[in-house]
DNA sequence: GCCAACGTTGGC
DNA sequence: GCCAACGTTGGC
């Protein structure tokens, strides 16, 4: 119990210390000292743990944490200690002061660092820890220190004897996000199982009665009355206004990210009508079981919060229950001014000065953001003084004046300055601030609506003004931290594609298998691959063979976002340069849509057989084995005699097409959508095509004709798992998506003249193939296409002949095909006559 | 550069 | 309270 009461106040300190420690230590190499320290740590073990922990609150040497039973954390810890010793003992190595690549790093990585920066904001101690200037510290920090505690996995663990020997417990205060300040309690079993919840604990402690165990505090209550759980009266944050929610929900409004005082969320929260001076709040800090619970006044009595509507912005009660006795100097996340007190913004994420808070408190609609707007005062919009009463803003304002108080569109400043030259967006050169000092309907404020509201505004906005006010682009200008926050967290999903909309896990992909509900160990902790956003998911998270592969620097990019690089090193600059050369931003500023631009396939280079083969082996494995073998065989002397399609899309592209189709198919299967809806799966492909500069030299008409056929095909029911897409050429490509199908490597390519060609494993059927005799030379209608596909389904791919002489058992078996192989043979045949003739 | 792992946060 | 899963790190 004592340990715990000590622990909580330590939290904040701990963070600072370890951050500083990290900073100092990161520059030290690991190497042999590590092993040595591992040994030392191993000797510590539990006997030292308690001692260490007791000293922890006072300790500033950063060695107050406990070694984890696992070797990994131990190793890290050992390194830390060693390095810590170095840093505390002397001056940092010279190269500490070598500059980062530049200050751009800050800017470049703003997005990346935001949450962390924020979470560290106010931890002024950190600069002291280094003894250098803050800026120096910051650079060092950025350069060397990971901001996460990954390198301190064993930090903060304290013995939890209640659960048995070897059990450890750790409280983690959320350092960012809308739930900042919230405490999560983790347990670590002697075996190293990390327990995140009571449920997990029960599963780990199978058979043990935990009914009297209070997870939060790590105590069993024997005969005592367990701490009554205060029923959450929490409502959605968004339903609250401004910092009221911060206080009411958390009861720790005075608790700041940098505060050393943490409140147990279940205590002291939801305290509204109380006298804050009744009891020191720190009586509840991390020690709900401290003293008699019955003596604790009702939670409601612990804090008295001034009503958020108070017109007098003044510091709110501090954490220890004395008004103003502990003035936290905070930096307003909105306007940047420092202020005293503990005001938080609406979403409880960031400090918010009273002014900004007051301004934002009327912001009731969660989807509407308000931004201070500085009108030009000269344009026609600015000269309009009367509301038109007709526009959507006026009408909506009449209906719900509180929720949508936006300026009449006729009164909007439409000054061209807003629109940067050729920018398509407005206000690129205009100063603005999202600081809302006051709120009214004056022209000084520009309402902003969410994306979903844009279309109506857009059409309306443009109707009477010569300057097209593109409301969509307002988002680009948003500096709303809340938005950034959410964007960052949400940027992996568009929320619109079918994968995003799909709620059902496939249960078979590796990510699903990893999930506890599927019996996995929860190590990967990723969303089902089939549910990864088709547009914005990281490539490596997409279904297999999607988003992977060895794409050349100028090659087409696979769907999905490039993997970000989070290396806090000077390599970043190089990477960025490379990234920009590749046409996408490798910085972490992924909110930038540059990564999401549709990619033209027209520039795709022909990939080497080698890399293609490798990639296929890696990505497609068994499913593509046949293809690979075929290629391999081709490389072994058969291809020369097989005519190539000169204008055929390159193998890479075909593969991409196939992947697209597979992805669509996967999503389709996962969502169990009916076939008729499948057309929606691949609009992206069409879009890609249409955005490519394919019409040059091919004739737009021809392309249009093909597109019409494509549309027709997509609105029709094709034979099962056949899919039509448009590819470079243009060519209409029909693919069999199912790997189970005998036609999985067969494609039908229709050119702008509607002449078609069938290819198998990228090899064209010889014109003499009997298949061609059964169907018209041109496929001008859906019916003709469907007939051909149905006809194809009666065929299978010629398997080729095994080599005459048995190869060494280690060698791959390469089936041989005749240069005149039919490729497609009737299903009951297996091997074509030409191949049979080889033997 | 890739990826397994996992700390952490959002949301139900 | 719990789980899903996002973002990041460190190892390879």
From TrEMBL:
Residues 98-120, 470-483 have a biased composition (Acidic residues). Residues 1-157, 219-320, 446-487, 545-610, 633-665 are annotated as: Disordered. Keywords: Metal-binding, Zinc, Zinc-finger. The keyword Metal-binding applies. Pfam families: MBD, zf-CXXC. Residues 153-220 form the MBD domain. SMART domains: MBD. Residues 266-292, 446-467, 633-654 have a biased composition (Polar residues). SUPFAM superfamilies: DNA-binding domain. CDD domains: MeCP2_MBD. Residues 74-86, 239-261, 293-304, 655-665 have a biased composition (Basic and acidic residues). Residues 600-610 have a biased composition (Low complexity). Residues 368-414, 487-534 form the CXXC-type domain. One of its GO terms (molecular function) is zinc ion binding. The keyword Nucleotide-binding does not apply. This is Uncharacterized protein LOC102210116. The gene is LOC102210116.
């Amino acid at each position: 119990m004592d340990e715990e009461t000590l622990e909580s106040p330590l939290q904040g300190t701990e963070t600072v210390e370890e951050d500083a420690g990290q900073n100092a230590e990161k520059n030290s190499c690991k190497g042999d000292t590590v092993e040595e320290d591992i040994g030392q740590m191993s000797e510590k073990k539990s006997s030292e743990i308690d001692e260490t922990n007791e000293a922890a609150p006072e300790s500033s040497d950063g060695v107050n944490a406990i070694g984890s039973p696992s070797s990994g954390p131990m190793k890290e810890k050992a390194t830390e200690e060693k390095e810590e010793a170095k840093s505390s003992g002397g001056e940092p190595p010279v190269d500490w002061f070598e500059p980062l690549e530049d200050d751009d790093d800050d800017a470049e990585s703003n997005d990346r660092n935001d949450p962390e920066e924020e979470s560290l904001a106010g931890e002024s101690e950190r600069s002291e820890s280094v003894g250098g200037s803050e800026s120096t510290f910051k650079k060092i920090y950025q350069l060397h220190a990971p901001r996460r505690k990954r390198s301190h996995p064993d930090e903060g663990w304290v013995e939890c004897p209640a659960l048995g020997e070897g059990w450890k417990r750790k409280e983690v205060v959320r350092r960012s996000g809308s739930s900042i300040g919230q405490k999560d309690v983790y347990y670590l079993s002697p075996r190293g199982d990390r327990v995140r919840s009571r449920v997990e604990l029960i599963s780990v402690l199978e058979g043990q009665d935990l009914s009297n165990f209070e997870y939060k505090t790590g105590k069993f209550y024997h005969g005592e009355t367990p701490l009554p759980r205060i029923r959450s009266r929490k409502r959605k944050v968004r339903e609250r206004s401004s910092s009221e929610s911060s206080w009411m929900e958390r009861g720790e409004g005075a608790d700041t990210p940098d505060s050393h005082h943490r409140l147990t969320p279940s205590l002291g929260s939801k305290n509204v009508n109380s006298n804050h001076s009744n009891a020191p709040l720190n009586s509840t800090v991390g020690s709900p079981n401290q003293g008699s619970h019955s003596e604790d006044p009702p939670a409601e009595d612990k804090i008295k919060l001034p009503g958020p509507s108070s017109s007098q912005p003044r510091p709110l009660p501090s954490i220890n229950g004395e008004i103003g006795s502990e003035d936290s100097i905070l930096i307003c996340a909105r306007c940047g001014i420092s202020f005293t007190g503990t005001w938080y913004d609406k979403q409880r994420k960031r400090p918010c000065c009273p002014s900004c808070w007051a301004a934002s408190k009327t912001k009731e609609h969660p989807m509407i953001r308000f931004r201070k707007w500085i009108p030009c005062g000269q344009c026609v919009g600015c000269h309009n003084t009367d509301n038109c009463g007709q526009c959507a803003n006026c009408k909506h304002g009449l209906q719900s004046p509180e929720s949508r108080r936006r300026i009449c569109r006729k009164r909007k400043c439409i000054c061209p300055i807003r629109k940067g030259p050729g920018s398509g967006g407005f206000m690129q050169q205009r100063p603005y601030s999202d600081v809302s000092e006051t709120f009214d309907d004056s022209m000084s404020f520009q309402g902003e609506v969410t994306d979903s509201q844009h279309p109506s505004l857009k059409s309306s906005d443009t109707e009477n003004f010569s300057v097209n006010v593109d409301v969509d682009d307002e988002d680009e200008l948003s500096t709303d931290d809340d938005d950034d926050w959410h964007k960052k967290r949400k940027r992996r999903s568009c929320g619109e594609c079918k994968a995003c909309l799909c709620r059902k896990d496939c249960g078979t992909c590796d990510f699903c298998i990893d999930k506890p509900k599927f019996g996995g160990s929860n190590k990967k902790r990723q969303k089902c691959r089939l549910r990864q956003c088709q547009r914005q998911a990281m490539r490596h998270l997409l279904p297999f063979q999607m988003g992977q592969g060895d794409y050349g620097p100028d090659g087409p990019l696979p769907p999905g976002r490039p993997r970000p690089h989070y290396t806090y090193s000077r390599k970043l600059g190089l990477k960025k340069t490379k990234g920009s050369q590749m046409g996408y931003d490798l910085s972490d500023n992924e909110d930038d849509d540059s990564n999401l631009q549709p990619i033209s396939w027209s520039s795709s280079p022909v990939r080497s057989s080698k890399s293609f083969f490798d990639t296929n082996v890696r990505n497609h494995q068994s499913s593509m084995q046949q293809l690979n073998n075929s290629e391999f065989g081709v490389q072994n002397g058969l291809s020369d005699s097989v005519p190539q399609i000169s204008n055929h899309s390159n193998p890479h592209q075909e593969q991409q097409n196939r992947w697209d189709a597979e992805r669509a198919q996967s999503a389709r299967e996962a969502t169990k959508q009916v076939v008729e809806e499948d057309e929606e799966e691949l609009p992206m492909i069409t879009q890609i095509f249409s955005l490519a500069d394919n019409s040059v030299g091919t004739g737009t008409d021809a392309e249009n004709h093909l597109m019409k056929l494509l549309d027709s095909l997509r609105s029709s029911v094709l034979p099962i798992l056949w899919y039509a897409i448009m590819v470079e050429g243009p060519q209409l490509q029909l693919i069999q998506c199912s790997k189970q199908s005998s036609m999985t490597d067969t494609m039908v390519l229709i050119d702008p003249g509607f002449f078609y060609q069938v290819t198998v494993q990228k090899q064209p059927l010889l014109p003499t193939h009997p298949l061609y005799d059964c169907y018209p030379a041109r496929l001008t209608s859906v019916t003709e296409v469907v007939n051909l596909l149905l006809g194809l389904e009666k065929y299978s791919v010629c398997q080729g002949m095994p080599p005459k002489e048995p190869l060494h058992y280690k060698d791959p078996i390469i089936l041989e095909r005749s240069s005149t192989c039919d490729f497609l043979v009737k299903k009951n045949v297996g091997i074509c006559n030409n191949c049979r003739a080889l033997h």
